[in-house]
Amino acid sequence: MHFEEVYAQYFRKVYSFVLSLSRNEHTAEEITQETFFRVMKHPEAFQGQSSVNTYLCSIAHNLYISGIRRQKRQVSSIGTEETPDPKDLSLDYESKDTIRRLHVLLHQMEEPYKEVFSLRVFGELPFAEIGSVFGKSDSWARVTYFRAKQRLQQQLEEEKFETFK
């Protein structure tokens, strides 16, 4: 397959994946472009051990994590942090307050739970691909997603209970 075909076939998938991680269109676009630039620059790096989509998402994931680390170093030296835009959430819940609170809870959740949940819900990736991104099995991805979902549900329930006290 030629680079143009790979780009045309997988651009939207990689972009959606990165958007699910970053919740920022500009960041998603930059990382997606950088992903395809790296593939174009080093086509021999793909050895066929995974699907093309998984390979591209792995590159994008690594670029995203590198960017987060770089941003954290900059934040610690500056002392300010950019907060994600809650408008980017696309969950269908009963109220805006619940969506906002879920976003806050998800943002506070530790890795890998936060990322696995985001990849599954926002990126709509199958468990096999999520596991592959992390170098783990699809069973690991299922269990991690289930635990993340349980934690979010438990925290939302605890907050509802606290408001009625």
Task: Give an overview in words.
This protein is globular. It has helices spanning 3-22, 25-41, 52-78, 96-108, 113-121, 127-134, 138-163. The chain has seven helices and no strands. Helix content is 73%, strand content 0%. The chain is mainly alpha-helical and 165 residues long.
Biggest sheet overview = none
The shape, in one word, is: globular
DSSP helix count?
7
Which percent bin holds the helix content?
Answer: over 70%
What's the Cα radius of gyration?
A: 17 Å
Write down the overall mean pLDDT: 77
Order of helices and strands: HHHHHHH
Short description:
With 165 residues, this protein is an all-alpha fold. Helices cover 73% and strands 0% of the residues. The relative contact order is 0.11.
Helices and strands in order:
Blueprint: H1 3-22, H2 25-41, H3 52-78, H4 96-108, H5 113-121, H6 127-134, H7 138-163
Helix pairs in contact: 1-2, 1-3, 2-3, 3-6, 5-7, 6-7
Protein traits:
165 residues, mainly alpha, 7 helices, globular
